Amino acid sequence: MKSTLSILFLVSSVFATSPHLAAADPIVMNVWPGTPPGETKTLPAEADQTKPEDRLIAGRRIIKLGNVSTPQIAVYQPPAEQSNGTAVVICPGGGHHILAYDLEGTEVAEWLNTLGVTAIVLKYRVPARDPERRWRAAVQDAQRAMSLVRSRADEWMIDPEKIGILGFSAGGETAGLTAIFQEDRQYEAVDKVDQVSIRPNFALLIYAAGIVEKGTTQLHDYIQVDQDTPPMFFAHAFDDRVSVHNCLTLAGALKEAGVPAELHVYATGGHGYGLRVTDQPVTRWPEQAANWMKTMQLIP
């Protein structure tokens, strides 16, 4: 409890100094009613692992949240008069080592709130538990979060048919697999929440990792796209150290399956910029994402 409170205090401090304050304090809930599936050991206390010498993003530090053992969702709701019923679960990146909790989490929630979208920041387990399937714990947490959010749709004034998922880097892998697996739950049901669908209605993958086999342009064999796969939006820089083929190949597979998708590949921009605007055109991707959401009739 102490570590959780310290992180919430840290996140609150970030918002206190932000020029774009959240509409209200988030609703924070544990994802699981007890111990998450597959947990067998105790990690050190959850903490921000950012070092003073770490690279700044757009001139600012970021929160690198590590040793997450208790997955949680933080629900940021737009003002009631602006809410349009759409919701998005946000999966921060961090290589399945840490979570870039503000850069690719709470700052994204602020932006989505300005669109009238309910934003749910997922604090999933890191570091990775399974060396063979490094995404497994994260996807379990994301699937459970999808069911949990959909089970609260009436309470949070959400349309249960307009709940999407958005992820960055390793969080993009998490979001993408959650969308692709659809109803293939990666854990045994634990309660009535798990009777609710885990399927995202749409997905936004930003500089996603882990979609293709390393060093190739081939999708992993467990990634199977069909006509029921949710529509997707992609943004990636061509010079990203994480291969642009993660987006190109998946977008191509969606095209073959007849699934709507929009792909934006920028010449330069690298990796890990979140929503922080720089002189690189790639950092304007949120404008294109908002336009896509309008086209898909997810926001007015």
Automatic annotation (TrEMBL):
Q: Where is the BD-FAE-like domain?
A: 75-190
Query: Sorted alphabetically, which Pfam families does this protein's record hold?
Result: BD-FAE (PF20434)
Its ancestry begins with: Bacteria, Pseudomonadati, Planctomycetota, Planctomycetia, Pirellulales
Signal sequence region: 1-22
- The UniProt record lists the keyword Signal: yes
Does the record bear ATP-binding in its keywords? no
Entry protein name: Acetylxylan esterase
Gene transcribed to yield this protein: axeA1_5
Q: Which UniProt keywords apply?
A: Hydrolase, Signal
Enzyme Commission (EC) number: 3.1.1.72
Gene Ontology MF term list: acetylxylan esterase activity
- The superkingdom listed in its UniProt entry is Bacteria
